[in-house]
């Protein structure tokens, strides 16, 4: 990575920007400024310093240029008139080239010179969409699709991901199909491909909030689906194509990207700020593993706010200055003046005030149930746990204890619809106490009925605790308690988990999920609203750190526990 960057006039002058000296650079560097300020030109200069004109190559070229200049100078001494003038002009050209190459050598610090790879192998320009590069799946023969999908392994950046988008998703769909097929899944190659495919599906779902699956068309070919619809890149929005390309890049090019200088020019184009920030955060985690670094040119306040001000430089009128102590100036310049800055402040103040009042009002009401929604972290983790337990030769029995509106059943049905031939035997029981609101019972019953209509699934909804048992009368493998504990008085926790333990198989487990940041206000108990954090959960269940690991990136405490110490 580059910790110090020096850009003298000889490099910056020809492209209309001012000299710069950037010190103490971190893993992420943000160049912020309005349109036309010079962000992209500074970004291109970083690329010029760190890519084709690599410092090592530039040093060699500087020596060669000085030698050539000296040769022409000596030749000019024995000439006169026009011939001498021509030789001296040529010598001046080589001297200018030598000075430019020496400036490139001096532009980066010693550490960067030692860690940057060979020329052309360590720079990834993620600067613009490559819509014209998309190759439609139906225009490819199967052998071409395989070759095209793997082409990105030899190059970094988004272009190769765009070129192989349809082909790559087709290969992922085939891997998922083979993993679900009762015969093909036993092949070692199928298991390895399935692990890689599942990793891609997880990345894509985290960015696009839709599940990639597969279907079998009328010609018996496996084709990819997205959100239950056939996936054809040309029919997607620009933002959807961009996120699939990001997912391919993050999945396929990790080993290459970890040591790259990555240039992002306005990554917010075509993307919602939240998704854009999530994508860049994932990329940040990749470069953290190696000598890589991310440079971002942006005028998006949400993107700037997502990273430390100490990483931000203000670019305006072709000049770059440290932005860590210029937050007010930076925001005002990006918003187009003080009036717009004050308008944004009023909007944020009003939004915070209304949110506080709404939360306070919710605290006067009884507990509400959370609905099913795309991108729900708890749903994603539950799906992952159930998928890992599904097998063609055994029945997986799941109890959703306190199922609420049935959002976990809905999430599971969404997953299984995307994997239509998955080898599965699933018995699913959703339980709610009988005093729930009628609308909650109706919603839960509807979601459970949809799940029960899928092949290989038996699902039922009960409101009587005495009926909580699988249809096969065998104990449960998984008992899910999602946001249940904080709705139960602490003095009743022992009884709650005694009941859970009584219906668990000997090798079964309780999957406990608890929100740590309450998004909705709820009426507290008489003794207070008690939310158990990670360390208290370990103490409560006498569990190890491995059983209750710390997951700081999630606002949810999700734990799979052997229920032993409360019963």
Short description:
The chain is of the alpha/beta class and about 575 residues long.
Describe this structure in words.
The protein has helices spanning 9-12, 39-50, 55-77, 81-107, 110-115, 142-149, 158-163, 165-180, 188-208, 238-252, 254-257, 273-287, 301-305, 327-335, 338-362, 377-389, 407-418, 438-452, 493-502, 534-541, and strands spanning 5-7, 20-22, 28-32, 123-126, 212-216, 222-226, 229-230, 261-265, 293-298, 312-316, 319-322, 396-401, 426-431, 457-462, 476-482, 504-515, 556-561. With 567 residues, it is α/β, with parallel strands linked by helices. It folds into three domains: 5-122 and 298-325, no CATH class; 126-258, no CATH class; 377-561, Rossmann fold (3-Layer(aba) Sandwich), CATH 3.40.50.150. It has a six-stranded mixed beta sheet with strand order 4-8-9-3-10-11, sandwiched between helices.
Per-chain topology:
Elements: E1 5-7, H1 9-12, E2 20-22, E3 28-32, H2 39-50, H3 55-77, H4 81-107, H5 110-115, E4 123-126, H6 142-149, H7 158-163, H8 165-180, H9 188-208, E5 212-216, E6 222-226, E7 229-230, H10 238-252, H11 254-257, E8 261-265, H12 273-287, E9 293-298, H13 301-305, E10 312-316, E11 319-322, H14 327-335, H15 338-362, H16 377-389, E12 396-401, H17 407-418, E13 426-431, H18 438-452, E14 457-462, E15 476-482, H19 493-502, E16 504-515, H20 534-541, E17 556-561
Parallel strand pairs: 3-9, 3-10, 4-8, 8-9, 12-13, 12-15, 13-14, 15-16
Antiparallel strand pairs: 1-2, 5-6, 6-7, 10-11, 16-17
């Amino acid at each position: 990575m580059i910790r110090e960057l020096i850009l003298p006039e000889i490099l910056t002058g020809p492209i209309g920007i001012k000299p710069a000296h950037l010190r103490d650079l971190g893993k992420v560097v943000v160049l912020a400024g309005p349109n036309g300020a010079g962000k992209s030109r500074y970004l291109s200069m970083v690329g010029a310093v760190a890519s084709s004109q690599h410092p090592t190559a530039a040093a060699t070229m500087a020596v060669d240029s000085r030698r050539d200049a000296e040769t022409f100078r000596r030749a000019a001494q024995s000439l006169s008139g026009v011939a001498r003038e021509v030789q001296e002009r040529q010598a001046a050209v080589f001297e200018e080239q030598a000075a430019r190459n020496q400036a490139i050598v001096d532009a980066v610090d010693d550490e960067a010179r030692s860690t940057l790879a060979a020329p052309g192998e360590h720079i990834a320009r993620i600067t613009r969409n490559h819509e014209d590069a998309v190759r439609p799946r139906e225009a490819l023969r199967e052998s071409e699709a395989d070759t095209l999908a793997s082409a990105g392994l030899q190059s970094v950046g988004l272009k190769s991901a765009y070129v192989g988008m349809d082909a790559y998703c087709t290969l992922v769909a085939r891997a998922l199909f083979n993993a679900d097929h009762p015969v093909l899944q036993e092949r070692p190659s199928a298991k390895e491909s399935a692990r890689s495919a599942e990793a891609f599906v997880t990345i894509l779902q985290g960015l696009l909030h839709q599940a990639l699956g597969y279907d079998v068309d009328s010609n018996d070919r496996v084709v990819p689906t997205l959100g239950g619809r056939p996936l054809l890149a040309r029919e997607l929005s620009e933002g959807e194509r961009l996120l699939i390309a990001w997912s391919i890049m993050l999945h396929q090019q990790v080993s290459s990207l970890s040591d790259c200088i990555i240039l992002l020019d306005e990554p917010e184009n075509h993307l919602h700020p939240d998704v854009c920030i999530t994508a860049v955060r994932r990329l940040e985690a990749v470069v953290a593993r190696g000598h890589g670094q991310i440079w971002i040119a942006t005028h998006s306040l949400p993107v700037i706010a997502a990273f430390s001000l100490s990483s931000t430089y203000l670019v305006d009128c072709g000049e770059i200055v440290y932005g860590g102590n210029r937050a007010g100036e930076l925001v005002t310049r990006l918003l187009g003046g003080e009036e717009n800055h004050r308008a944004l402040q009023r909007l944020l103040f009003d939004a915070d005030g209304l949110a506080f009042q709404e939360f306070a009002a919710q605290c006067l009401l009884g507990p509400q149930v959370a609905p099913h929604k795309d991108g729900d972290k708890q749903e994603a983790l539950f799906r992952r746990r159930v998928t890992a337990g599904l097998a063609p030769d055994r029945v997986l029995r799941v109890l959703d204890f306190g199922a609420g509106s049935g959002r976990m059943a809905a999430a599971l049905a969404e997953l299984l619809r995307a994997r239509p031939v998955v080898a599965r035997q699933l018995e699913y029981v959703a339980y709610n106490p009988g005093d729930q609101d009628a609308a909650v019972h109706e919603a839960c019953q509807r979601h459970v009925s949809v799940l029960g209509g899928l092949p290989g699934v038996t699902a039922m909804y009960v409101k009587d605790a005495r009926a909580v048992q699988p249809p096969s009368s065998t104990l449960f493998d998984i008992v899910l308690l999602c946001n249940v504990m904080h709705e139960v008085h602490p003095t009743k926790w022992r009884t709650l988990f005694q009941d859970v333990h009584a219906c668990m198989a000997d090798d079964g487990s309780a999957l406990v999920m608890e929100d740590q940041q309450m998004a909705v206000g709820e009426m507290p108990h008489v003794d207070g609203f008690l939310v158990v954090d990670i360390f208290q959960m370990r103490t409560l269940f006498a569990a190890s750190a491995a059983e209750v690991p710390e997951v700081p990136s999630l606002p949810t405490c999700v734990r799979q526990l052997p229920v032993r110490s409360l019963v």
